[in-house]
Batch of 2 targets.
Target 1
Amino acid sequence: MSSAYANLTRTFTRLSRFGHLSAIAGWDMMTMMPPGGSSARGAALAELSVLRHEILTDKAVAQWLDQAANETLNDVERANLREMRRAYDQAALLPAALVEEKSLVGARCEHAWRQQRPANDWQGFAANLKEVVKLSRAEAELRAQANGCSRYDALLDLYEPGMTAAKLDSTFGELKQWLPSLLARIVEKQSRQPVAVPVGPFAVESQQLLGNALMKLLNFDFNAGRLDVSAHPFCGGVPEDVRITTRYNANEFISAMMGVIHETGHACYEQNLPKQWAGQPVALARSTAIHESQSLFFEKQLGRSTEFLSLLLPQVKTLMGDRPELEEANFIALNQRVKPGLIRVDADEVSYPAHIILRYEIERALIESEIEVDDIPTLWQEKMQALLGLDTTGNYRDGCMQDIHWTDGSFGYFPTYTLGAMYAAQLFNSVKKALPQVHSDIREGNLQPIFDWLQQNIWQHGSRFTTRQLIENATGEDLNPRFFRQHLENRYL
Amino acid sequence: MSSAYANLTRTFTRLSRFGHLSAIAGWDMMTMMPPGGSSARGAALAELSVLRHEILTDKAVAQWLDQAANETLNDVERANLREMRRAYDQAALLPAALVEEKSLVGARCEHAWRQQRPANDWQGFAANLKEVVKLSRAEAELRAQANGCSRYDALLDLYEPGMTAAKLDSTFGELKQWLPSLLARIVEKQSRQPVAVPVGPFAVESQQLLGNALMKLLNFDFNAGRLDVSAHPFCGGVPEDVRITTRYNANEFISAMMGVIHETGHACYEQNLPKQWAGQPVALARSTAIHESQSLFFEKQLGRSTEFLSLLLPQVKTLMGDRPELEEANFIALNQRVKPGLIRVDADEVSYPAHIILRYEIERALIESEIEVDDIPTLWQEKMQALLGLDTTGNYRDGCMQDIHWTDGSFGYFPTYTLGAMYAAQLFNSVKKALPQVHSDIREGNLQPIFDWLQQNIWQHGSRFTTRQLIENATGEDLNPRFFRQHLENRYL
Ligand SMILES: [Zn+2]
Ligand SMILES: [Zn+2]
């Protein structure tokens, strides 16, 4: 008779294979599928999703989980069992009816939002969002009861296991102390250094060549992945075949270039997850926040550094055509420009946390029933004014209606962007200590020591450790926003 | 309580959704996937294939099939039930161990063949092929016992339900009477009309534009499908999202052009299958032979006709550059050139049936244990000499090792190519009767009446009728090779 643990690994291998098909069909939907395929694809993916839920929440799985806890397991197996338990609990906890209703209501809200946002129709959107919030609160309540925590903590835990609102309040609270004044000082400083913007058109073919060259430089394994185009850039596929995307704008090439660096960070994490445990939960990426720390390590710590931009410049000039705006100092200034604006996805790394803190405070209060949907616009205006000094009165489109995340009830996701940025800064600080030559290495294109360090400290571990253990092992301490502050001050002051 | 028939439709809808994911992941594997993704993809697809087999051969399905036979059903439902029964019987009949062994042995033989063919290594290939034949005979024996027919008939039935070796012997026997002499006459005639071959390079971008223009002309619905590149052209995907492929050769554009027309014929059949029964077996294409009749209708009856080639020529000149070889008479002669050769896939429509008859006679005798694998080379040489006057002694690579079909045991498939060609000629004959203006219509690009006729007579029926009923309804009689002969004589003499 095989052990309960062996039965579990077989079940999770099977789930992983079905997850593979779901990931590839999902990637295809975003990159290749003609519009007419949409409804059949939706039905096929939903059918597979129901099946995966059934397999995962089967009674036998619950029994095996209990039995396996008493079996002799090594460290990795025990970590795998912990992640299996987590996956089972998360899935088994919600009644099927709630899952289905949330999925329907979320899809309806998102679909309508695609029209309502350009129409600035807050009233129409609010009506749908109230339904989403109602169901998300119900979900959070069930999860909170099971976990013995607050509602919002229960949702946070889906994206960053172990993270709590208390810890966020303290971390983000510290950021709020120094971020607005730091931002003001940087903006003031940069106002004395005007930047010239290169004028297009920039051929899409050249931008593609630049993207591919960057991916190669960043050690992306083209034998196990590819780059395509989609409306919203993402990193998908499976560790054996990672699919990243970007979008091209003929008038401006820097967004696509930085987008490719960002997604390549996600991709290299996926491509270097532990192959010896492939198919098991312990082989998966640690969390949404750690995933984002890798993309932001690549994009912000590495990609926007003076040394990396200098390294890149000759290739940029060759592909985009030499011109005065690509003179080195100007090219670096272009990529390090700080300019508070209304839109999160366009934000520089200094003002980005303000966008996140604002959303975190609103969504936490919303889930905890401290505020209602109707309170959002006023809160948004107040917080934008306080954090970034911008007026958004009446501009819902570029205000509280700008993001897709709330439309399908992904509450708890936003904080991972800034957690990722802080982890990235903390990790790069440790890289600098481990590799004293790192700045000249980057300038010379010798990036392998950095990849080796990430492989050693992050990638190879998958989900073996908790985030806190992983970060402590890698950097000697738990999350500490000091490194992020130092990074911003060093780069921008 | 829902009826047994309703339970069956739900089960087959579910199977169809999983089939959708399998089709898209399979297409991706051939067109997009980097090599490193291969083994994970193989495992994922195999897992889904096991699941589909389990769902289809569940005991409940057998019970519902029996019960539904006594329920009140309309004509379409009864046809659907017939196709469900067929799918169930085909799947349930084979022991899982045989299916698995055949799949393993076939994969091994095919894999080795990719090296053995270029090395002309008949001995190495024969050793593997013997294993494949052994298992195919075992499969055929089980199917024959269940169907009460001969072994080879049981395999034929997988690709063209209702077709028998007796009927093939009679039909192909008739072809053998007149084909060699007709071929000789045509070759002799064409030897007096030398053809000038256009010299490349032809930009792949121009060939792509030509392919897309052709697909548009042929009513391919780009809202429900796309054209990509693969090593071996195919038509895949699902009726809601049909994926066709081609391959480009910079030195020669006619193969890709005709390949696109061929696959578009397959695609238009798929895109126009009955949507009101989508997800049910009755909504699927009738058979492999009928599918090929649609691609050959497009490629041979329509695409290589003088009228269609004239219609096409201005666009070809624009995209490929005007040159003497694209003078109208030469362009038509190029596309209607008849030249017996060793390779089936390169064969013109006059010598193609010889390649098929040869393979049919050998594979039938092989499955019926009248010959053994070691007898194949000699038989191949004799039949190539008799049918096409070509010597293949010692040339296994371009002889009996040229096709992939036998490597994984797809015995019974080859005849559908020539059945398809004959059905296509018979259908076009009926089109000419129904649309007396059809030749001038084609020359003027007015193809809609032809598509309407195919829609009315073939596409909309899916698998509602048997092949024989379908062809009799469309043309007034069962398969009759006379129309194929008339077509060849009209075009080439
Ligand atoms: Zn990211
Ligand atoms: Zn075909």
Target 2
Amino acid sequence: MTKFIIRFSLYQLILFLLPLVIWGQSDYKLWLQYNKVQNKNILSEYNSNIKGIVALGNSETIQIATKELEIGLSGLLGKQITIQENSKGQSLVIFGSESSLNKDVLEQVKKELSTINNEGFIIKSIVSDGKKQLLITAKTDIGVLYGVYNFLRLLQTDKSIANLNFVDSPKINIRILNHWDNLDRTVERGYAGFSLWNWHKLPDFIDERYIDYARANASIGINGTVLTNVNANALILTPQYIEKVEALAKVFRTYGIKVYLTARFSAPIEIGGLKTADPLDPTVQNWWKEKAKEIYTRIPDFGGFLVKANSEGQPGPQNYGRNHVDGANMLADAVAPYGGIVMWRAFVYSEHDPSDRAKQAYEEFVPYDGQFRDNVIIQVKNGAIDFQPREPFHPMFGAMPKTPLMMEFQITQEYLGFSTHLVYLPKLFQEVLESDTYRKGKGSTVAKVIDGSFDNHKITGIVGVSNIGNDINWTGHPFAQANWYGFGRLAWNPYLDSGAIADDWLRMTFSNNINFVIPVKEMMLKSRETVVNYMTPLGLHHIMDTGHHYGPGPWVSNLSRPEWNPVYYHKADKDGIGFNRSKTGSNATAKYAPEVAQLFDNIGTCPEQYLLWFHHVSWDYKLKNGKTLWDGIALKYQQGVDEVGTMNATWDTMGNYVDEQRFKEVQMLLRIQYKEAKWWRDACLLYFQQYSGKELPEGVEKPTQTLDYFESLKFPFAPGN
Amino acid sequence: MTKFIIRFSLYQLILFLLPLVIWGQSDYKLWLQYNKVQNKNILSEYNSNIKGIVALGNSETIQIATKELEIGLSGLLGKQITIQENSKGQSLVIFGSESSLNKDVLEQVKKELSTINNEGFIIKSIVSDGKKQLLITAKTDIGVLYGVYNFLRLLQTDKSIANLNFVDSPKINIRILNHWDNLDRTVERGYAGFSLWNWHKLPDFIDERYIDYARANASIGINGTVLTNVNANALILTPQYIEKVEALAKVFRTYGIKVYLTARFSAPIEIGGLKTADPLDPTVQNWWKEKAKEIYTRIPDFGGFLVKANSEGQPGPQNYGRNHVDGANMLADAVAPYGGIVMWRAFVYSEHDPSDRAKQAYEEFVPYDGQFRDNVIIQVKNGAIDFQPREPFHPMFGAMPKTPLMMEFQITQEYLGFSTHLVYLPKLFQEVLESDTYRKGKGSTVAKVIDGSFDNHKITGIVGVSNIGNDINWTGHPFAQANWYGFGRLAWNPYLDSGAIADDWLRMTFSNNINFVIPVKEMMLKSRETVVNYMTPLGLHHIMDTGHHYGPGPWVSNLSRPEWNPVYYHKADKDGIGFNRSKTGSNATAKYAPEVAQLFDNIGTCPEQYLLWFHHVSWDYKLKNGKTLWDGIALKYQQGVDEVGTMNATWDTMGNYVDEQRFKEVQMLLRIQYKEAKWWRDACLLYFQQYSGKELPEGVEKPTQTLDYFESLKFPFAPGN
């Protein structure tokens, strides 16, 4: 237990806030702060290498790149940047696509050009007409824009630019955000205010935020956005709304971002006046074809549809006795003539099969491997339950070699403390991507399934369920910006290290000072394990309160579907706790490759982080550290609380490196996280103690409230519900 | 008809927006931009008169005043302002309350101090110890803060400060915003996003916006805020929420702003577990007393309750056979020991009396004159129907001499184009305040009723239904900020001229350049008449579409209560149009003083702006300009459209005076307003033409769509509904 004690009073905080009154908006600028470089040597290197910029070409995208360089360099170098008409000067940043380069220059990047894909870029120090220049080039203008953002990142993070040959291409085609945004601007599981999309004022009012949203996404390589909730409303497909979507698509297009929509499967009935939505009915098929034509007439680069079908009450092909293949392929045929795709979600679980929800998506989808159209991609959540603080990787990854699978991560913190808890999610994403499916022997990681290299898929994709809302700081918590950022970086390259990403983000967002970067990065990297510790240690899962999912609710047992109840997942009784998914139980382990199944099946080899996910374990079971399971659980909860204490202590010393507004915001939020970590600890331990019948071990603080109190808490207006 | 043609394409606008990408937030700063003074002579005068600032005292409010002067003067003068420890220097701005002044200084403002009230202030050039100084003083620290904001306003508007003796006090005690904000953060009739109050993160997270909200309000003298919707939720009165309200109250207190809540009349049942909410039941009375005690224990300066009772389905004393006096007095007794008040709304109309809604509040309330407790104030909307573009003043004003009446204005544009139409509302407010009730002979203006001077009331009040939301620019439309601003200024002094307020606002918000101020002020001042022209000319009212109130809906006739239907209000038939409220009709005119009643009764003397409000008039009736009524109506609609065209043309020439982001925002919004003005014109004229059977007169453009088309439009997700 740390010695850290929170000395917190609201009054003190407010007093401290008073001198802050400065209409400060650094929160809004995300990782594109472009503050002046502080290190004098580095600044001098930059100044001697950057005497001006030269744009080759004048497409809208090149204009954006020019503007971004102008803003970025002016801020970073602290002086006006001149835009040169030509390359007669020296030490210029010259940027333009392959087709705009002269022969001499082209020759110098020929080799690199042959290695990049259409979205890749080259940043290379070259000599042209005897003059040293910095060239940013690519096969396309969008590639150039990505190069510009990557170049600016080098400067934002104090990297040398003296001799550059930085060549990179995205490893995944579709790098996309899913907005669970409703047409009334509420956001399902949104904790950063409300939807950015002001449908009422569209199409004629283009909010500045649409542009800044596109900038931020382009800066990290995100190239697609699904504007609407997977729990879809058919009205988005009516002409009134398509016109509004078109206006957004126009803004996003120049930033290389395609727009996608969710398709409500019953739309032909609801807005088309048909009597059925049966995917094998020709009138239904034709309705979707006409609808696709209508959309593509207005939005020629429309990305396609995302569909949640026959899942949690959403309509789908099964309503008509058809299957997922029938539904997905019908939509795929409608958008195929225009190059569109269908992202079909595998998040399904039956209300008629109470045995083990963890097996169901696998059972429902894997048999269809090879039957989907070429332009269908199956969207699979990272784990088999639902975005828990920790889940083993979803067994579908690697199990459908003939079908491209798209990774669905959740950036919004539905189960991880909303926007009040600092949890650095790229650490979680990395854990999943590095997981070994063993489907083609050791080293068959999830990342290789996702990026297509494993099974040679043409379409590859990765999805982040957005944490973006209309809060001024976009994501509710200043550090939640890192999760948007990190998702984008991992979408571009799923083999990146989350620590390196955190390093970049901290430097771009706050400061390059290592006295700040090192301790705060450590805090970020530990934060995911911390939230697991104080919410769901040792493989526990789905024990949050019901509906809003805010705070603990292990006692909830009265919901209509068994698999909605926390008691279904923890199965605590006097003998022990945990869900037996081994071959002696639900046998969900059998869905994995044999090597993995064996590992998880055996309580002795099962990693303790998944212990209660796969096994029902006696309270007296001895953990690897020699503690009993009961003591181990209790100490993990305490550890989680203590770690949040340490986070508070760390942050409290960072006031000199961060503007006062953001410093205080994070401080207030860490105080809340500490309070809520205790709430989780106390509520869960008091509840489980009823079954274990044991005392709390030494080192675990006594609960401050009774179990009755915790069970009585109600949050009728918790956000995102 | 103007020659102005809108050459508008979204594409052009977006292209134009590209170079804008600058994370610009001037929108957020409201009228507190504090940009550097451009006029060199004036700047030089300021510099020679302001060498530093000296704070007398160090209360939190004085600290705020110091900070504001520091920020404001640094910006305006373009240099760092030094805070002096004492007044030894010369040309200092010295500020502090009466009690902090030394004898010599006190003597110089003694006379002024005797004329101001507790919130008043004095800004005076003085000589102390032989040195010329600028003194800002008041009886209270809040008065000093008001003085500081008023001083800064002088500088923001290029006024001379060489020899000042500016003495002012608010003429109304309670200057308050009503937020129709729900606990789920939706805002009833809110068009600027969602509620500022992030209840979920309160009390521990203090959003910077709370502080900036308080600043903005204090800067215009607003001293109260009702946080919650008049259609109330009892949960706001539970301990969980009172703790959150307490946190907001703490932020607002130092800015002189008291917090008030709406009281749901049935709260004793809903959260108190009682069987009744009968105001004469002692357990109910006691419940409210205990509740008041609980609130005041946490918030000692809690302002009191606002109540909408027995109105549009809200519970109230009539549910128990009691009356408004019983209900209001019970609550008044509960808060009286703590100095609290009850604001009881008079917005009532019976569903059982379909004769004329315009008479009902009068009939229900006036008989109770003199029966309310001293700490009850009756809150009356400006007109007898509901915040229409134009209404004659409410007949209750002046009719209840023994009861203080509070003016309720609506700043949010429920019936005036939401946040897409530029309508400068202080012009409307001024028209109402200047209206003559004739209750004590000529000159008995509404303003005199409101400010208490007419009947010597101690409590006086004025309410603005807020147009504030979590949009970055606070109010959705940059010019809607002027309505918040103007309401505050008129609340302080209801005799101010709306033109002078517009002048100040434009200079503070945009520019002091007269080439900007003069034409744009003219545009603002005309804008209210313009919206009347294109929506409801000649006394038409309540012909908007139903539910959301967006756009025209004169055809709506199917709502369950007769007085909810537009047809009830316009009564168009083949003989004519208008609601006969004269003595030959509903006799609503009789509710006014005889002089006023006579004026309105007689179609010859009734001002044409109220013609169809009070009379059913033949289509062939000759207006004062010689046109028939039909032609006159049609030409008014056209005039409204043309005037919006002129607004567009005016604004289009203002690009040099305004930052690009706000310039473009206003431009896009004016384009929408133009489109929607035509929609109103076309829909209303096509509909009324069915009854008049006449051709559109020359000069009126042909409608672009059919009536069927307009009637078919649906807006299921229009905001604020």
